[in-house]
Amino acid sequence: NVEENTPITISYIPMSGIDCQERRQRLQDGYCFQCNCKSCCGATQTKEISSNSNEAYLKLENAVQTPEGSDLQSLREVQFNCNERLLRIKEEDDKRQVTLSSALPFSAMEGFDRDDCLDNCLMMIRMSQRGIQNQGIPPSHEVSIEAHRLLAMALSLQSPKTNNSKDADDSTTSIVMAIQEHCHFFEKVNPIQILFDPLAMATQHFECSQEYKRCENHDKHQHHLKLALDIARISIGKHHSYFKMMEQHGRVKDLPQNEPSRKKLKTCDIAS
Predict the structure, then answer these.
(1) Angle (deg, nearest 10), helices 142-158 and 198-214
(2) I need a surface site. Which of 67, 74, 174, 264 has the fewest CB within 10 A?
(3) Residues 79/150, Cβ–Cβ less than 8 Å
C-alpha cells in the first residue's frame, strides 16, 4: 500500500553499532544496492539537517568508527558460533528442568558435553574480547556490545542451581559476574541508544532482572523488569506473546517481604 516515490524508512539492517561505511557495504553485499539515504550519505552532505543534528550524527558515527583493517568478520563468526552453542545449552537445560519436574528420566543429547561446551564458549568469548581490544574497536561497536551480551549469557548458564554450600558460593560468583556484564552492556550501548534496537534492549533488561531475581535483590529485579516491560510495550505492544512471556516469567512469587540478610544478596547489590 506504499505509493510510488514514497520514502521507506524501515532499515534493512540494524543501524546500531556499525559505522556508515560498513553499513553501506553490508547493504551492497546483502541486498545488491548502494544506499543513498541521509544516514548513509552522511549528515554533512545534507544541507537541510541542522547543525545540532549534524553534531549528533558525527558523535554517533565516531562512537562506532572502526580502525582500518579491523577483522570484524572473524569476530562475528566466533560470536555467532558461541551464540548457537549457548542457545543449545539453554535448550538442553530447559528440557532437563521440564523432565525433572515431571519425574521422568532425562536423556541428554548424544555426544553433547554441556560443561565442556560452556567452558569452550567462555574461552572463545573472552578471546574475542581481547581481539576487540587489540584491534582498537570502539566499545560501542556492535561486536563489542555483543561480547558483553554473550558473556553475561554464558556466566548465567554457568551458575549451578543447587543447595550445596560450595556450589551455592560458586553460583553467587557467577551471578555477580553476569550482572557486571549486563552493566557493561548498558554502559556501552548508552552513547548509541537512540539507534539501538528497542526489543534487544528490553530483552537485556529482562535477562538482567532474572539475575537479580535469582539472588533475591527485589528492588533491582523490579527496576529492570519494569524497564523491559515498558520498552517492550512501546515497541511490540502488550498483547504480543513475547511481552506476555516476560510479564509472566518476571513475576516474583516467593520473594521475602523483608530484605534478606544473606551474604549472596549483598554480593549481588551492584549498581546498574
Answers:
(1) 30
(2) 67
(3) yes
* CA 187/CA 167 separation, integer angstroms: 30
pLDDT band (50, 70, 90) for residue 102: low
Grid coordinates given for 180: 557486571
Which three three-digit cell numbers place residue 219? 528492588
pTM comes to 0.75
Q: Give pLDDT tens digits for 214-258.
A: 888 999 999 999 999 999 999 899 999 999 999 998 775 544 444
Find out whether 272 and 182 touch, Cβ atoms under 8 Å. yes
> Using the 8-state DSSP alphabet, how is residue 161 labeled?
-
- Name the H helices within the chain: 20-31, 38-41, 51-64, 72-101, 114-134, 142-158, 165-189, 198-214, 218-236, 241-249, 263-267
pLDDT of amino acid 249: 84
Tell me the C-alpha to C-alpha distance, in Å, between residue 98 and each of 91, 102, 107.
11, 6, 12
d(C-alpha 27, C-alpha 19), whole Å: 12
Amino acid at 127: M
Measure the CA–CA gap between 192 and 195, rounded to whole angstroms: 6
Q: How far from chain centre, in Å, is Cα 102?
A: 32
Residue 116, Cβ density class (10 Å: 0-12 exposed, 13-18 middle, ≥19 buried): exposed
